[in-house]
Amino acid sequence: MNSSPESHRLRFGQFSEPNRIYLITANCFQRQPIFSDLQRGRAFVRALMHSSRSAETLSYVVMPDHVQWLMQIRKGAELSAIVQKVKSQTSKALKRQDRQLDRNWQRGFHDHALRKEEDLIAMARYVVANPLRAGLVKSLRDYPLWDAIWL
């Protein structure tokens, strides 16, 4: 994630569109491998599940140093608020697991609003295939921190 003095402007001029599908990428602070621990990764997954009133999770993957989340915003919800809440809930859970963890997330996040012509299932496959591309596993079956509604 951008750590420049202008990083606070990542969301400037953008808005949330109800029923729009977004690919969210959020990085761990200084790209530390916080989620290399399975229990820490599950804390993020639980936070995603609690966001179901605001967003429908279509697919996600929790990598050691970042997360990717393909989601559809529900009516009345706001993208920045959804992501902030998930990151906050994750941080609180991580703090309960390990008091030494201080800062977990880079500021901001990257979002990509999918266009109508983009293949949604191909994007979901791209998300969940991250551990394969990173060389963490040889088979996706061996990686515990991913899901997609189609797979």
UniProtKB/TrEMBL annotation:
One of its GO terms (molecular function) is transposase activity. InterPro entries: RAYT_transposase, Transposase_17, Transposase_17_sf. One of its GO terms (biological process) is DNA transposition. Residues 17-130 form the Transposase IS200-like domain. This is REP element-mobilizing transposase RayT.
